[in-house]
Amino acid sequence: MNKQEIIFKQNLFVLAIAVFIAGIGFSEALPFLPLYIKTLGTFTHKELNFWVGFTFSTTYFVSALVSPWWGKLADQRGRKLMILRSSIGMAIAIGSMGFVTNVYQLFCLRMLQGFFAGFVSNANALIATESPKNQAGKAMGTMAASFTAGNLLGPLLGGLLASMFTYHFTFLLTGILLFISFILSFLFVKEEFKPISKQSVITNKQVINSLKSSNLIFGLLLTTIIIQTANSSINPIVALYVANLMHNQGNTIFVAGIIAALPGIATFLAAPRFGELGDKIGTHKIIIGGLISAIIFFFATAFVTNAVQLGFLRFLIGFSDACLFSQVQTMLAKNSSIQTTGRIFSWNQSAMYIGNIFGPLVGSTVAGFFNYNVLFIVTAALVGINLLLFHINVVKNIN
After folding, report:
1. What DSSP string runs through 49-103?
2. DSSP-derived 3-state class of residue 42
3. Neighbour-count burial of 303, counting CB atoms closer than 10 A to its CB (0-12 exposed, 13-18 middle, 19+ buried)
4. pLDDT digits (tens, 9 = 90+) for 147-168
5. Is the pTM value of this prediction over 0.85?
6. Distance CA 327, CA 275 (A)
């Protein structure tokens, strides 16, 4: 085993733990964020959905603006520095959310969170650039499994803590967890990075010209946008939907936390296996299967009548997610050079942020003017459009 392979395995191990912790931190507050917003003022149904949508979206709007700049800086200074910058910045921003007294303060801190975003994407980029091409699918699947395992535990922990203590305590704990990820990354992640001058950094046009198939890459980025739009249109309203299905009776916070965690369980179990299978039969086939199953599961969710049915279908959605997010990243890594992977991953991160901007706005608008059931039907249709575009832009351009 050579030195480069040893460093790769060490980084994969350490960053898998770090993104697991970060996954807990990112997800433990999200299931009850709409309920937290509800405590920060007196809102009508439409006003509440408006603030939920915009508070979710603003983080990703800011992130979409700054992500390309962070990507260029990563090419110049290294991805480890970006990992450290993101983890400490978000630890401060999210931890401070526990001390807000109105929705405007929360909105501003969500913007600040967006400015410092990029921990997981930079961790993925570091692993992608170091992993052997024949192990890329397994490595990215491992990273996805670690992050979603954190996403699995986070809502359960967040729901339990919010029920036992307060929303404020949960935000503070999130900040502490992200600070732990900062310490782990600072002490144990090794990056053999050779700095390049600003003059030597290739332009976006040069990156595009160096690609074997720019249509394939941009097709994958479009796929990411629509995947994120579909999923993030649902995520902000899950807690409100659970409360509606339970007629605001019982411990809706804890139940919402459990249901929010269920997709993570499925993704954790399936992502590495789908990654290995994609290495063998073609990653694009795994993505197609994920899109088809997502259409079925989202459509069926529109007709649930209780929280148990909702939880079951959200669990199945996790298997679809395992076929999508990490597999798109794998295709991007396999179809780009080491010199351009960081830039392309930053583009993909921006694509995710764009989806996360539009998703909550779509979700809050549809839910505000119609109801939650209609939202799931609209989301299923959106995934259907994604399937068609993926076939046109990606499948037809595979060498």
Report:
1. HHHHHHHHHHHHHHHHHHHHHHHHHHHHH-HHHHHHHHHHHHHHHHHHGGG--SH
2. coil
3. exposed
4. 877 877 787 787 777 777 778 8
5. no
6. 7
